[in-house]
Amino acid sequence: MYTVTLIPGDGIGPEIISVVVEIFEHMNAPISWDLVEAGEKVIEKYGTPLPDYVIDSIKKNKIALKGPITTPIGKGFRSVNVTLREKLNLYANLRPIKSLEGLITKYDNVDLVVVRENTEGLYKGIEYKIDDTACTVRVITKNASEKIAYFAFKYAKENKRKKVTAVHKANILKITDGLFLEATRKVAKEYSEIEYEEKIIDNMSMQLVLNPEKYDVIVAPNLYGDILSDLAAGLIGGLGLAPAANIGEDAAIFEAVHGSAPDIANKGIANPIAILNSSIMLLNYLKLNELAEKLQNAISATIKDIDSLTPDLGGKGNIESIKNKIISFLD
Q: GO MF annotations for this entry (predicted)?
């Protein structure tokens, strides 16, 4: 039996997380949930959206499933997601992007993975203002760059991927992105069996839209990886399908890529597939591969039934119809 920290989150978070819990129970997954609350709902009581007991739970269990947590824009508290990644040194953000059969999108042949450095860059949040000028500090280190490069190449080798593409803007940011490229080039030499290439971020964005089938594993600094993974999610149908894992040496947090969507909370139309796909990554991380495959097959079958899908996927269904259809395919 595995104990997993469970963070429902804000907005639609509790709704979609409850779907995972019910489906896992139906599958008899050997998982016990350690429920902890974080986000806007705990600020009044604890004075922070991220009380210490959340960090303590994840450190103890070493694995968590997290619903989306609201991040204020331009004001308010610092992103809970960024804080978790820094405090737990979850240096690798892994975002698989794969076309789903039966879903009508502009592409049906996308199968790539974005590996994003998760702890530095502009997300350090080092900002200051002098009179009418605002500045931010972008931090890129050799150590973090090499770690994420090793993670990307190791992932490629273990998952029989053939190519790693490093994304940068070293033509302009010659020191910071130059250092990132030095690190990826060094690591690439140790994996001669894997093709290595480099793309400037603006060209990479265009190439993903024009020819996404040409890409396999993409490794990038924090901001580029964040933007590209959302862009890539759009190629397969949107953020409602895209899973993510934040992985470190001592812990891992699995989450959906999308936000808390407070405008549709408690309306029954939230799409749980992204968090379910994240839970599949969690199962594979725990080496519960048979259960992961079983759930993946049930989701794939459900995707082909348009009537069961939520409005964001072009369907007329709701969160209950998706959940019930998945469970029917599990039986």
A: isocitrate dehydrogenase (NAD+) activity; magnesium ion binding; NAD binding
pLDDT tens for 274-318 read 999 999 999 999 999 999 999 999 999 999 988 899 998 888 999
Do both 20 and 167 map to the same domain?
A: no
322, 326, 328, 331 alpha-carbon torsion, rounded to 10°: -160
What are 98-129's pLDDT values in tens digits?
Answer: 998 888 888 989 999 999 999 999 988 899 99
Is residue 276 assigned to a domain? yes
Full residue range of the structural domain in which residue 125 is found: 120-222
- Structure tokens given for 249: 């040496």
Residues 303 and 268 in one domain: yes
Pairing, β 252-256 against β 243-247: antiparallel
The last residue of a domain, from among 222, 247, 275 = 222
Q: Judge contact between 144 and 138, C-beta under 8 A.
A: no
**Domain count along the chain:** 2
Which two structure tokens, joined as six digits, stand for 109? 């042949």
